[in-house]
Design brief:
With about 170 residues, the chain is an alpha+beta fold. The chain has three helices and six strands, in the order E-E-H-E-H-E-E-E-H. The longest helix is centred in the middle third of the chain and has 15 residues, at about 65-80.
Length: about 170
C-alpha cells in the first residue's frame, strides 16, 4: 500500500424514510450521532425538544465509532425523562474507499466495507407492536419471558462469592 494514497470515501447516506421501525410518529426527533459530536450538545438539544413537548419519540442513530456515543445518549435521555418504551435495531451501511496510485501503471483500488449502524427509538407513548424485534418493555420483562404469563417465576437471589481471605476472617470471628 506504500504505492497508494487515500482518495475519497463514498458512504451510503442514512435517510429518514429508511429508519427500520414500525409506526413511528410523524414528528419524531431524529438525532444523528457522529464520531465528533459532543454529547452535551446532543443531549441538551433533545432535552429541549422533549421539554417543549414538541415530540413524543426520539430516534438516535450512530454508525461505526459513533455507536457507543449514540447508546450513551439514548440511555441518559431515557433515565432523565423516564421514557418507558425502547426499540433497538442494528443494520449496516456500505462505504467505498478509493485508493489512488502514486506510480504510473497502477490502477485505483476500491475497498468496499460494511459499517454497522444502530437505531434506538425512545417513545413516551405506547408502541403498538410490542412483539417486534428489539423491543424493551417498561415492565422490565426479558424477551424469553412470556408476556401474557399470570404466574411469573420468582427471581432467584444469588449470593456473591467470597474470597478465601474473607472466609478466613469470618471463621476467626
Amino acid at each position: 500500500m506504500e504505492n497508494y494514497f487515500k482518495g475519497k470515501n463514498v458512504e451510503e447516506e442514512i435517510e429518514r424514510s429508511k429508519i427500520p421501525f414500525k409506526d413511528i410518529p410523524e414528528n419524531f426527533l431524529w438525532m444523528q450521532v457522529k464520531g465528533g459530536s459532543k454529547m452535551t450538545n446532543l443531549i441538551s438539544h433533545a432535552t429541549g425538544i422533549l421539554e417543549d413537548k414538541a415530540t413524543t419519540a426520539v430516534v438516535w442513530t450512530g454508525a461505526g465509532v459513533a455507536i457507543a456515543k449514540a447508546i450513551s445518549c439514548a440511555e441518559i435521555l431515557k433515565r432523565q425523562f423516564s421514557i418507558p418504551h425502547q426499540v433497538t435495531s442494528l443494520a449496516y451501511k456500505s462505504v467505498e474507499e478509493y485508493w489512488e496510485p502514486k506510480l504510473d501503471g497502477l490502477e485505483t483500488i476500491i475497498v468496499k466495507r460494511q459499517v454497522p449502524v444502530i437505531h434506538i427509538l425512545l417513545s413516551i407513548q405506547d408502541i403498538s407492536d410490542v412483539n417486534q424485534l428489539g423491543y424493551q418493555s417498561p415492565l422490565g420483562k426479558k424477551f424469553w419471558e412470556n408476556v401474557s404469563s399470570n404466574n411469573p417465576k420468582k427471581q432467584q437471589s444469588f449470593k456473591s462469592k467470597k474470597s478465601n481471605k474473607q472466609r478466613k476472617i469470618e471463621n476467626q470471628e
